[in-house]
Design a protein that fits this description.
heterodimer, A: 341 residues, globular, B: 3-stranded antiparallel sheet
Chain lengths: 341, 181
């Protein structure tokens, strides 16, 4: 078998396996989110379905599939139907550039080289930023097309929220780009080779924190879940959605959570690399999985601790704190990198 | 905003403090009672569905059909028809209690001179049939099994101590419910 044919077969396997694995992971993350939400509040969470309630998500999926799919009569129907997919697809596309193991080098599988990344291309980070910006359209269009005041307000908030965090998100990543000299996530992980003190979260601690906070806004999770503020807007952009259409939004949110946790791990915590070189015998995907799990737990912890920021507070955090800090961080990183070189 | 404030915000002091609080709840013992599987013990003064107690010696109901409970009942849910036994003692021929009207105030229990009508620890009263709320004498007598255990040590209103109450072998002890009276 020629090298090219083998690569195509591997590509298909990876492109099928990775989404499937992440979807399975999401089903359990939703369960753990509910379980941990209970734990953080002194409750026990779901307990009935399966051992310790762990099949709860599957029960939810069957419930959502069996529910009536209501499309409001006065809604903009094509857009209303399209919006969940717009929210759903960008989350999956970012998976393609996420390296989950060593790339390149010696043949390692049946005499062929198996790259642990779906698409090893140079503008990986740009793809992430572009898809992150695109995912907001799902929320905005859902809010707009529902023909409901609460939905519209939710969509508007999502749009306004996006312009206040997206800049800081972009600038904080530039620090990593400057240190690596590349936008390719594979190269960025290679730049963090070594022990855990070689990871970028130490030189880029400010950038890492800004990125983490901005991703919380990108994920629409609780300190910044203004778009679906239950107490104020019923369910924001989700108000008119029911059944599996609503489930798609919910699902996209958690796929996004996995992918963005993977990205935080890749950019600042060494990606698939072990924290100590002696632990390199443990395969890369496992390390990435561990890092993603820890980051998701932190996201959950923050979500169930801090309450929602007010609309204008998010604006001032984004524009007055995160953006200047990320620019200062970028300038200092650039100076240090150019002086050292 | 002072410098200390800025530093505090910069290192997320308040947020970390909040997270330590939720983190302590995360590992703490959970307060949930998973109701159908596990049930809480009711307090001795809990006012559930009513019961008519019987005299353990004669097996006869203790009620003497004095109508005090029917009179004091604020929601008029008790109706009694009295009769006389051959020995000349009066007792209820009918004793009907409509739980759907009852407000569970416990006045009937308090006013009863014979300690015959009591409120039990039975609180799972939901039903599909409204007629189930209409308790007749037999149902009220059957409810005895749910009566608070503390009642058995209560001295009879007519004197004679615990043995006149019920259950001769019940341990004589003072319950919180007694001290109130």
């Amino acid at each position: 078998m020629s090298q090219a044919a083998a690569q195509y077969i591997f590509l298909v396997i990876k492109a099928v396996l990775m989404p499937v694995l992440i979807i399975m992971m999401v089903a359990f993350i939703i369960f753990f989110e509910r379980k941990f939400a209970g734990f953080f509040q002194g409750r026990v969470g779901p307990t009935y379905l399966g051992p310790g309630g762990s099949f709860q998500s599957f029960g939810d999926i069957f419930k959502l599939l069996s529910k009536e799919d209501v499309v409001p009569e006065r809604a903009d129907k094509p857009t209303f139907r399209l919006a969940p997919y717009i929210a759903f697809i960008p989350a999956f596309l970012v998976m393609a550039v996420l390296p989950f193991g060593p790339v390149g080098g010696e043949p390692n599988l049946f005499g062929h080289r198996f790259d642990y990344v779906i698409a090893n291309f140079d503008a990986g980070l740009v793809l992430f930023l572009a898809m992150g910006a695109l995912a907001v359209y799902g929320v905005v269009l859902a809010g707009w097309s529902s023909n409901n005041n609460y939905s519209l307000l939710g969509g508007l908030r999502a749009g306004a929220q996006m312009i206040s965090y997206e800049l800081a998100l972009g600038f904080s990543v530039v620090g990593v780009m400057v240190m690596t000299g590349s936008l390719n996530l594979v190269t960025i992980v290679d730049g963090q080779a070594g022990n855990f003190w070689d990871w970028y979260f130490i030189p880029q601690i400010v950038g890492a924190l800004i990125f983490f906070i901005a991703t919380m806004a990108e994920l629409n999770r609780t300190p910044f879940d203004l778009a679906e503020a239950e107490q104020e807007l019923v369910a924001g952009h989700l108000t008119e959605y029911s059944g599996m259409r609503w489930g798609m939004f919910y699902f996209a949110e958690y796929v996004n959570l996995v992918v963005i946790s993977g990205l935080v791990a890749t950019l600042y915590f060494g990606g698939w690399r072990a924290p100590f070189e002696v632990l390199d015998f443990i395969p890369g995907p496992l390390w990435l999985f561990i890092k993603i799990s820890i980051l998701i737990f932190v996201y959950m912890w923050v979500r169930w601790t801090i309450f929602r920021y007010r609309y204008n507070q998010l604006m001032s955090i984004g524009w007055k704190v995160l953006l200047p800090l990320s620019i200062i961080n970028l300038v200092i990183t650039a100076i240090i990198v150019s002086v050292v070189d | 905003m002072g410098l200390t404030d800025a530093i505090k915000k910069g290192v997320f002091v308040d947020i970390l403090r909040g997270m330590s609080v939720t983190g302590s709840y995360f590992v703490a013992e959970k307060v949930t009672v998973e109701y159908p599987k596990e049930k809480l013990e009711t307090y001795p003064r809990f006012r559930g569905a009513h019961a008519l107690l019987t005299d353990p010696e004669t097996g006869d109901t203790k009620c003497v059909a004095c109508m005090l409970c029917a009179t004091i009942c604020p929601s008029r849910c008790i109706s009694i028809v009295g009769e006389q036994t051959p020995e000349g003692r009066s007792r209820p021929a009918r004793f009907d209690l409509d739980l759907a009207r009852c407000i569970f105030c416990g006045l009937c229990e308090e006013v009863c001179p014979e300690a015959a009508i009591v409120m039990t620890r039975r609180y799972e009263l939901a039903t599909f049939d409204k007629n189930d709320f209409f308790l007749e004498k037999e149902a009220l007598l059957a409810n005895q099994e749910y009566a608070h255990k503390e009642l058995y040590s209560r001295p009879s209103p007519r004197g004679g101590g615990a043995e006149a109450g019920a259950e001769p072998d019940a341990p004589p002890r003072v319950s919180p419910a007694d001290e109130e009276r």
